[in-house]
Amino acid sequence: MAGLHPCVAAYLDRLPAGLDSYPECIAKASLLRDVVESRPIDPEGEDVPEGLRALLRTPPPVSSWIPEVAFVTSRMIVYGRDFGGTDIAGYEQWIHTVNTALLRHSLYRVLFAFTAPERLLIGTAKRWSAFHRGSQLAILEHTPDTALVRIDFPRHLFSPEMLHGFTAGLRAAVEVAGGRDTSTKLASIAPTRGEYWIRWKPRAGAF
């Protein structure tokens, strides 16, 4: 895979069929559009796998679905190119900024902005499936200000870097739902799952 950043090549090498892996796993096209609008990717660049070029040339409408592997690969391209394949903290900050803007968009705001954090997390499966299918997010434990959640997925579908990025995405979701002083931590990581502790302070007046 000449020309690919090592982190992109490593991700695709771990999959059973590269970009064609896990066709049952799909992501909302709005996620890809947010990547390329925030950090444009040249479809003809040598750091882009051949099978991803057409999707980047003409991103589908935001309401469409695309292969999850294609979305993850686009994120990995940005991680390798713009964050050197090593700057996890900078990568997470970028994800937090992008996801906050996405969840405040009128298309998705009703799912997140008018729900208290605890209720938001109790309904995680429905909200996760608004963006990802073929993988699952479940709440394992929760209190009025903490939650332990787990993401389950086919082997190596989500790279370790992607799982770190989800810490920022989860924090953004809780903040949009009104959580204050929110923190997220990747508690454990495995080839088929990631577990996260989320802590927050409820917004004033929340029940």
Rg, nearest Å: 17 Å
Structural class: alpha+beta
Q: What would the CATH topology of the domain at 112-201 be?
A: H-NOX domain
Biggest sheet strand order reads 4-5-7-6
**DSSP helix count?**
9
The overall strand count is 7
Q: What is the averaged pLDDT score?
A: 90
Q: In what range is the share of β-strand residues?
A: 15-25%
At CATH level 2, the architecture of the domain at 112-201 is Alpha-Beta Complex
At the fourth level of CATH, the homologous superfamily of the domain at 112-201 is H-NOX domain
Largest sheet: 4 strands, antiparallel
> Span from first to last CA?
53 Å
**What is the 3D form?**
globular
- Return residue spans where pLDDT drops below 50 for at least 5 consecutive residues: none
- Share of helix among residues? 40-55%
Sketch the topology as an H/E string, one letter per element: HEHHEHHHHHEEEHEE
CATH class value of the domain at 112-201: Alpha Beta
Detailed description of the structure:
The protein is α+β, with helices and mostly antiparallel strands. It has a domain at 112-201: Alpha-Beta Complex (H-NOX domain). Helices cover 43% and strands 21% of the residues. The strands form 2 sheets. A 4-stranded antiparallel sheet has the order 4-5-7-6. It has a 3-stranded antiparallel sheet with strand order 2-1-3. Strand 4 and strand 5 (146-152) form a beta hairpin. Helix 1 runs antiparallel to helix 4. It starts with 5 loop residues before the first helix and ends in a 6-residue tail after the last strand. The model has no long low-confidence stretch (mean pLDDT 90).
